[in-house]
Amino acid sequence: MTGSDWPKAVLFDLDGTLVDSAPDIHAALNQTLASYGEPPFTLEAVTRMIGGGVPKLIERAYAALGKQIDPATRDKAAERFIAIYEPRATELTTLTAGASEATRAFKEAGVPIGVVTNKPEAATREILAHFGLLELLDVVVGGDAGPDKKPAPGLLLLACERLGLGVADVVFVGDSENDVEAAVAARMTVIAVRGGYTAIAPEELGADALVDRIDAVPTVLASVRALATTR
Ligand SMILES: O=C(O)COP(=O)(O)O
Ligand SMILES: [Mg+2]
């Protein structure tokens, strides 16, 4: 397998795909909830709430408490969460196995890479810089970039626009239904990585390919690209 089968760029999701950020999100969410007098959640419960962006995280937490939250209160709580989360975003967070190898493999082959996440861009950049990935990336699109968050296609389309590439030239790698739905809506090939943050069985996400670890992405690209031309 050579790099000639590869797309012109590869975009990666962040949480649950490149980094295991759930422990810091868990700590920050519980601190946010405590400030409102609400009880804490387990790490496992919070892990299932991640992936839709911060306002969704707050909404899901309140829903799990059996409480309705109006949009204004939710947005205030989301701001409070971000203020707590940002300064501690890399305390317990680790790279997922193979994330460094996968990103470097593309970069060394001259394939531009990027991150498209529902997480706000400031915290995203801080995390990527902490792990030495920011300098490798050609584009970083966060959930606050403007377009609707994943599962809408806008963030992926914005990344393509910034790269100067069409969706057919780009592959997206993610861990959840939000990623697959966003890619399908953007008509972009998508590879799912097992072990991320999703309540759905990885086989049922509907991705074009499924890998056990992110560093297997380069080796599945040839078959996935062949598939994409028939879509
Ligand atoms: O839920 C979030 O804040 C971000 O999640 P993502 O990196 O998987 O898009
Ligand atoms: Mg994710």
Describe the structure using short key phrases.
231 residues, alpha/beta, Rossmann fold, DNA polymerase, domain 1, 2 domains, six-stranded parallel β-sheet, binds 2-phosphoglycolic acid, phosphoglycolate phosphatase activity, PGPase_prok, EC 3.1.3.18, metal ion binding, carbohydrate metabolism
What order do the strands of the largest sheet run in, or round the barrel if closed? Answer: 5-4-1-6-7-8
Query: Helix share of residues?
Result: 40-55%
**How many distinct folded domains?**
2
Task: Return the structural class.
Answer: alpha/beta
Largest sheet, described in full? 6 strands, parallel
Outline the structure in words:
The protein contains 9 helices and 8 strands. The protein has 231 residues and is an alpha/beta fold. It folds into 2 domains: 154 residues, HAD superfamily/HAD-like (Rossmann fold); 67 residues, DNA polymerase, domain 1 (Orthogonal Bundle). Helix 1 packs across helix 4 and helix 3 packs across helix 4. The mean pLDDT is 94. Bound molecules: 2-phosphoglycolic acid (PGA) and magnesium ion. 2-phosphoglycolic acid binds next to loops. It comes from Aurantimonas marianensis. Keywords: Carbohydrate metabolism, Hydrolase, Magnesium, Metal-binding.
